[in-house]
From TrEMBL:
May play an important role in modulating bone turnover. Promotes the adhesion of osteoblast cells and inhibits the binding of fibrinogen to integrin receptors. In addition, inhibits osteocalcin production. It comes from the Eukaryota. It is found in: Secreted. Residues 1-76 form the IGFBP N-terminal domain. The gene is Wisp2. This is CCN family member 5.
Length: 221
């Protein structure tokens, strides 16, 4: 109550125009409950007036501050998290920065996997010029068959029509996991698809969980 009486003036005197906050920092009331300010983010300095973003689970941590100085915004109970594009995610949270990737926050860092298939399409008689293009309204690019010479394409189709008999399966073994801990990828080349063409296929793998790292949020002076 003593701090409130010293710092908070009544009635409130606030700027006519609220401040423009950086991305990921919402407008909140200051510690006096008077004026709107930009909430402080993870690792930023804070005090009684300049409050942290409580919607992200942040509190003003005075544990490493000297007497009479402010604190630093940190997660409550020292919970680790991730900051991506100005937004905070809790430890263990799964999120999508875009429709093409999905990420997992773990131990203060994050790992991401692609949601779009990264296959390789080789030229075939019925599709001599494959090209991957962005389709309006769709997130992932798709393959199209582009004919640089319509006569060549028509002749190729006549000479080699689409496969109608069962496709003899062929494929390589799955590769070793790309990560020694946490989520990674294993790849192989196979023709086990509806067009019976060779393509690179991926699947998720995890040899073991990654060891937990100690939380380390440097103080900002």
């Amino acid at each position: 109550s003593q701090i409130c009486a010293q710092l908070c003036r009544r009635p409130c005197y606030c700027p006519w125009v609220p401040p423009r906050c950086p991305r990921g920092s919402p407008l909140v009331l200051d510690g006096c409950g008077c004026c709107k300010i930009c909430a402080r983010r993870l690792g930023e300095p804070c005090d009684f007036l300049h409050v942290c973003d409580q919607s992200q689970g942040l509190v003003c941590d005075y544990s490493s501050a000297s007497a009479g100085t402010g604190g630093t915004c940190n997660f409550e109970d020292d919970e680790e998290g991730c900051e991506v594009n100005g937004r905070l995610y809790r430890d263990g949270e799964v999120f999508q920065p875009s429709c093409k990737i999905q990420c997992h926050c773990s131990d203060g860092g994050f790992t991401c996997i692609p949601l779009c298939q990264e296959d390789v399409r080789l030229p075939t008689p019925d599709c001599p010029y494959p090209r991957r293009v962005e389709i309006p309204g769709k997130c992932c690019p798709e393959w199209i068959c582009e004919a640089q010479d319509q006569h060549l394409l028509r002749d190729a189709r006549a000479a080699s029509p689409l496969l109608r008999s069962p496709c003899p399966e062929w494929g390589t073994e799955w590769s070793a996991c790309s990560a020694t801990c946490g989520l990674g990828f294993a790849t192989r080349v196979s023709n086990q698809n509806r067009y019976c063409r060779l393509e690179t296929q991926r699947r998720l793998c995890m040899l073991r969980p990654c060891p937990a790292l100690p939380a380390a949020f440097p103080a900002v002076s």
